[in-house]
Structure formats: structure tokens, C-alpha cells
Amino acid sequence: MEFSPIDIPPARWPPADVPTWLEERLRSRYDAVLATHPDFASRLNVHLPDAWTAFSQVYGTDATAAEWFVRALDAAVEGLRARPASLRRSDRRRGATPDWFQTPEQVGLMCYVDRFAGTLDGMRDKIPYLKELGVTYLHLMPLLQTREGRDDGGYAVQDYRAVDPALGTMDDLRALAHDLHDEGILLALDFVMNHTAAEHAWAQAARNGDDRCRDFYLTYEDRTVPDQFEQTVPEVFPDFAPGNFTYAEALDRWVWTSFYDFQWDLNYGNPALFVQMLREMMVQANVGADVLRLDAVPFLWKERGTNCRNRPECHWILQAYRALMHVAAPGVLFKSEAITTPNEIVRYLGTGGYEGKECDVAYNATLMSHLWHALASENTQLLQRALTTLPPTPDSATWLNYVRCHDDIGWGLADDDVRAVGQDPTDTRRFCADFYAGDRPDSYAEGYRFQVDEATGEARTSGTTAALTGLQQALVEGDEHDVDRALRRTLLLHSVVFAARGMPLLYAGDEIGQFNDYGYLTDDERAADNRWVHRPPMDWDRAALRHERGRVEQRLFDGLRRLAETRKTLDALHSGAQQRILQTDNDRTFLFERMHRDDRLLVAANFSSAAQAVSLNTLPAVWQDTAYTSVLHDRPAVFSSGRLVLPPYGCLWLQPRNHDSEGATTTLPTPVELKVCTEWGEQVYLCGTLTALGAGAPHKALGPLSADNYPRWETTIDAPEHTYFEFWWLKKRDGQVVDRSPHRYAMRAGNETAWQLGTHL
Ligand code: GLC
Description:
Blueprint: H1 18-29, H2 31-36, H3 38-59, H4 63-82, H5 85-96, E1 108-111, H6 113-117, H7 120-125, H8 127-133, E2 137-140, E3 144-146, E4 157-163, H9 170-182, E5 186-191, E6 195-197, H10 201-207, H11 211-214, E7 219-220, H12 224-230, E8 245-248, E9 253-256, E10 263-265, H13 271-287, E11 291-294, H14 312-328, E12 333-336, H15 342-347, E13 361-363, H16 365-377, H17 381-388, E14 398-402, H18 415-420, H19 425-436, E15 448-450, E16 460-462, H20 465-469, H21 471-477, H22 480-499, E17 503-507, H23 540-544, H24 552-568, E18 578-582, E19 589-596, E20 599-606, E21 612-615, E22 627-630, E23 635-639, E24 643-646, E25 651-656, E26 667-675, E27 683-688, E28 706-709, E29 712-720, E30 723-733, E31 736-740, E32 743-748, E33 755-760
Helix pairs in contact: 3-14, 4-13, 4-14, 16-17, 21-22, 22-24
The chain binds alpha-D-glucopyranose (GLC).
């Protein structure tokens, strides 16, 4: 679309009264659009001031900046005009319900198109599978045309307007988006905005002498400036892409390359680049993306003397784009990929007066890394602390919570937090890297170190969820008990992720426990980058086993599906619901509550391999009742001992019990068997929190037990249905207690397993 030359007298810029200015200056420019798009004028009125404020912070307020700003507005208008009617309708619907992406219905899954379904067309055939799992949000990893050879998993884009031919075409992508929308599934696509492939047309043109295109990138004639930057800028991939600059022979210049040497960083100091990238962004939006995952946003702005991460300009740039997208495609969400410290991550969601004006969703890397730390250490102090001090997200935005993604796990444990729990930061981070690389005697993990810091021994971690939780090892070694424990660990992590404030995101294949994939080692283009170990092709043969009762695949798939289904029914899991981390008397457990209107949920998770108990009287008053509904199991849960009992790696989602439903409880015969060695003349009694066990009084303990199978002592208790109870043994001689068990045990009525509680009696 061609517009008349821009004519904005600098003196009148920025206009004091935007609507009037619009009326006067832009009416003729956008006449046709104003006539055909009734919402346009009002959106412009609302978002133009924000767009200009942010834009002018980066590009200035002079006439040249104003001219570029109008160009940006032109790009947005072009996008609006090209936006299909169906997407415009959904923009309007979303505008009427601003929390549309924050409801508990949302459950995400991420995958590579080729590894999951072969092609975009094939992806359409997998929609029933996604629905079976409860997925409502699908993040397809980069699928645009990339350079030949190494392409950083699709993050080296050669053409923003073409799909990778091996996957299909832009039309296929449109058709897929359409089908997904029909089934109520959102589509998230990557927008790789920090860099292009060195083979992108702009870079090619730059090499052929086009200065306009050269200015799209950050290039330097010699090492003087790069060397200055290298003093303060860390490296992302020190192992296989050291340094931040690459010499480009055809240019005879040094190009900024934060990631791989074939990924050229874009120059956001150039307003022409800003405008051009908005055009590219609009193409993705109009193809049907509901969410743009804005890749590597902390890197967008470079400034000498700094670490070139999270500069204020990164935020201005995103805010300018957000405002312009609000004008053109307001229903499209921005998801920031900023894997950095909690305070920095939250800023991408718009804080300090910029709420609703930057990104809408952000990866919750803090939750992710601290969950893994808690699992390895069987201690939740650091997790509790990090989440308690995690800055709140604005109401307009939300977290994306995940157990793992396609990237490595970075041990972003803040020094202050680690010290506050009495540990050394370097030691703790090294512990995590060692544990998940399987290099500790107590480790069950089979992951790998990624980008080792030789000086400190710290490293990031690669590996699938099954490899890191011990499922892979247990299945290979065939130990049923270990398999069970590893499944519990996997479901534990997900139970927290599905209940924490935000939207959960699964990594495809984790729902059937896929193993590490070593195929990348035979591929020269990938062998050096062990993140490929945790990006296995989907194993559809194993997925088919999800319907066979008792199979690992079934237990995992159904466990996750249950989390998704249950989540959807709970108002308390709306993103707008409050979240409060609870301090208890047991640091092996992690408890938090969610509250929305009248709905409340208590999440109680045990990160230890032993059963644990938490005293109800350490919880807020509302949670001190002994009777609850366990919503994941859809049954009552009564804690007769005044303590919440959590099985090894167990997680309960509890709601206050509806007391009307409490009737006379039936009792269930519950067999108990304990191994206790006795001296001649000693007898074993059971004492516990049930009336049948003496309600804690030794002289009313049940017994003596029979020992037909010495040293196993057995009895069967009539326990009230749905009740968790605790017990311990006593040895009596001549009616006098002479010894008692060092540990308590806990059980649920009717259950066959007694858990030894991790805490001493
Ligand atoms: C993001 C991606 C990562 C990629 C990098 C460079 O961090 O998640 O996989 O290597 O950007 O594009």
C-alpha cells in the first residue's frame, strides 16, 4: 500500500491532543481504513500515545523520528487491512473478554512440527491427540525457512515469509491455524526478532554492498569496538560459539553475533529495521498466530560498558510494537522469552505503570529451575523463598509455567536467595549440574552438562524429563519400584506447574515418558549441541500404549490428562487468582494456596522420597480443618492425625470439604504389616491416631499383633473410609511399654501401602 509523503511539522509533534491531531493529519492518510474498519479510530486513539512514547524513547522526537513513526503506523495499517475477517472477529471477541488467555482452561504443549508430525499437514491429523490430552495452546517450534545446514533448531531464519519447504507452505500453516482454531486450540509461533540467518536476503544484500541493508545489522570496521564490548558482555554459547562477534569476509567487517556465528544480530537502533520487523511480525499474526513468542528479547539492545542484556530500550521497543499490534491485531499475545533473573523477567510483563503495555505472557524460569533444585535436594526452602520473593505479575499478564522446554535448564538460582538459606551459591548450582548429570552417588538422573564454566564447575543441564526424573534409568534397569518413584516425581513437578499462577506448558513426548535421543550425535550439524538430546522425535508406538492399563505411558498420560481436566474445573486456578506460598513445619514439602472469588485450592507437594507430614496448625486458619476434598482423586480426604500426610513425591490438590456431604462414614478393612524384631516375651502393639489404635494412648493400643510370619507382625484395622491415619508400634512386656518405633507410619484407609514418614516420632 502506498501512502502520500509524510507531512508532520516537527513543532506540532508530539501532538497535545492525539484525536485532534489524528483528525487533522492522519484522516486523509488513513481515510479508506477509517471507513472500512470501525474499530481503527478508537484503537488508534487509545494506543497511539503509548506507541509514540515508547518509540520516541528509542528514536527521538525530531521530525525524522516522527517520519519513521508514521512509517511504522503505515505498517500496522497495512497489517490491519490484510488481516482476515475471521481473525478480526476473534480480535473483537478477545477485546470483550480481556482475561480470555488467563482462564484455567488453558493447557499448553510445545513441539517441533517435523519431530511430532512430519509436516504441517500431518500436524492437523494430530489434533485429536492434542484434544485427548486437554491441550488448548500449541507452540510450534520455529518453522520458517532457515539457512542450509546448522540452523540452531530453526532459530536462524532466512525468510520470515516462507515456511520451511520440508514442512509445507504458508497456505498449509494458514489451514492448520484454521483447524486449530475450530477446535479451540491457540497457535503460538516463534518470532525470532533478535537476529536473522547470515543468509537472509538483507544480509546477502549487505554483503553485495547495499548499505541500507547493512544498517539492519550491527557491524564494525575493526576490532576496536567489539573488543570494548567483549570486556563486559557474557557469552551465550562459550563452548561452540565463543565471543560475540564474527568476521564477515564479504563485508570486511565484524558482525555482532550473540548466539551462533551464523545468526546476525539486528540493529534496533535503526528505525527502518524497526518498521521492517513490524511488517514481518504482521505476516505471522495474519497467518493465524494467536501468540508470538518473541525470541531472545533481552538481547535486543547493546550499549557499551554494560552486559547488553535487558537494557531499557528492549522494553521501549517491545512497548512500541505492543501498542502498534494493539491497533492492527489486538487479539495477538506477546510472549517474552527472557530467561533471566526474576526481577528482570517480570519487567517484560509491563510493570511500574506499563501494565498491559508490553508482553502478556512470560516463561517462569524461576519456578522451573527451583522445582528441579527442590527435587534433587529433597528440600524446598529455596523454592519457597524464590517464589515468595518472586515479584507479582501485573493482572493483565500471566506466567507460562513449565517443567522443561527445548532449551537447557539454566540454574538461575539467585545468590541472595541461596545465601539466605545458608548455602553457597556456586556449590548449590554445581550440585544441580552434577546431580542431573548423574554424577552424585544418590542421583537417578541421566542428563548432561551444557556450557560448562571451567572456573567454577557450574553448568546448565540437558536431558528429557524422563531422563532427569530417573524414569529412563528405572525402565532400562527394569525395577518396578524405581519406575513408580520416577513416575511420581514426574507427576509431582507437573502437579505444581499445573496449579501455579499462569498457564502450564508441556513438552511433547514427556506425557509418555520419552527418553533422551542420541541421534544428534551422528549428525555433524548437531553433535556439538547437546540440547538435541532432549528433543526426541515423537514415538507414536509408545504413544499408542497410553490406552493399555498399567503401562508407564498410560499412567503418565492419564496423570497429566487428569491434571488438565481438573484444572479446567477450578476457578481458583484462573491466572487472576491470588497465590500465597505457605510456610510450614516441613521443608521437604511445598504448599501454596490459590484463591479466586469463592474458590480456594490448597496445593501440597512432597519433594522427598519418604512420606511427609505437615501440621495443619501451621497453616492459615482456613486450612486447619481435618476434612477436605482431594480434587485430583475426586474423593474426600480426612487427616485424622491433625497433619496432612503426603506419600513419597505425592501431591494433593485440596479444597475445603462440603460438610453437607459428610454422612456416617463406613469403615474399610485395612491390613497392616510391620517388620519388628523382638526379644523373647515381647509383644507388638499398634498405637495411632485412630480410635481403633487408641487415639495415641499407649495403654489403648491395638494388640498384641500376631506374628505367624515372624518378624512380620500383622493385623487388620477397621479404618474410616477416606481417612489418612498415622501409627507406630510399641513393644510391650508384661503390659509395660519397653520400646517404640523410631518412625511413624501413615496410611490411607483401605490402601495396601504403609508409608514410613520421613520425620522422626
Ligand atoms: C532462544 C531459543 C534458543 C536459541 C536462541 C537463539 O533462546 O530458545 O533455542 O538458541 O534463542 O535464537
